[in-house]
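Thread: quick sanity check before group meeting

JM: Hey all, I'm pulling together slides for Thursday and realized we never actually wrote out the predicted structure for the chain we discussed last week. Dropping the sequence here so it's in one place. If anyone has concerns about the input, flag it before I start.
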Amino acid sequence: MNHEMPEDNDKLIIDQIICGQKDLFRLLVRRYERPVYGMGLSFFRNKEDSFDFMQEVFLKAYRNLCSFEGRSKFSTWLYRIAYNTALNWSNRRKEYLSLVQTDIEDCENLSPENQLIRQAAKDAVLASVNELPQRYRVCIDMFFFYGCSYQEIEEITGIPVNTIKSHVFRAKKLLRDKLEHLEEG
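JM (edit): ok, ran it. Output follows.
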């Protein structure tokens, strides 16, 4: 049985969970554990805190599942819970690091030389992204690495759409300039 259902079926799964099939929540956890864990890594930068964060987010989502009305995608609702939880937890730490630090692609099929080149490029992008102001990093991560639309980022963060567009535009320009400078050096 394939447990990878399209995101459109999230509402159907949620309805079944609310009607008593509580074990189906594991399908939602499997579908979203990687991005939620990644957001935890972005905020906390260690596996233990990120894992605890992920558990807290899914616990909050499970407890509040009845309040999900389906007006937005479940992923948007869940990322909003995750973002707010991360902000509350990170007030103790005061730093957000880009999701780009997590493994985006599997590099097993690359030659050792190409793996080194890929890692050097990834390190340069990570360093450049992490030098951006936090408000830009959050928008860049959600837009590029979580695949959120501007509207979804607004729903998750509470930042107005035009401000998000501006942050993404400015961040891309800063990254382009910084990475071009590295390439010249």
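AS: nice. The helical segments are 10-18, 25-44, 47-63, 74-90, 112-130, 134-145, 150-157, 161-184. The chain has a mean pLDDT of 81.
JM: adding both to the slides.
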